[in-house]
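For this section, I looked closely at the sequence of one protein beside the tokens encoding its backbone, which the following lines show:
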Amino acid sequence: MKKLENIFVAIATVLIYTSCYDREIVSSKEGVSLPPATNLSHIISGNKITLTWQIPSGIPSEMNRPLGVNIQILRCLQGSLTNVRIFNSTFQNEPTEVILDMPSNPDGGIYEYHIVVKLTGTMKEPEYGHSGTIYSLGRTVVVK
């Protein structure tokens, strides 16, 4: 019985000390970062969607040019917090426009599509032990 009490006390002590630490939430990493794409817009024509954006000025000199543009499409069931990534591709040479096929609703559900556009690039001299690939914050358009 004494052994069981000691185990419970040890578990309670570990839980108390691991749940009480003073750390700030990391909102950004130190070092080089890319600004997000600007002026993101979309036009739907039939079953095609045309996305346009601008590459912002102020790209850090530590980045290789041309940059890439990563586009992800997430299918979200309206009223649900669950989403499924149905498209993810990176386009090279700093494009400012892309034309994509609109996804179809597979089961007739009421979906909305979140299309996320991020700039991506590689550093000229990455820090040892760290990835040299950098992504900007994403810009999103919602298509219903």
Remarks:
- The mean pLDDT is 86.
- The chain has one helix and eight strands.
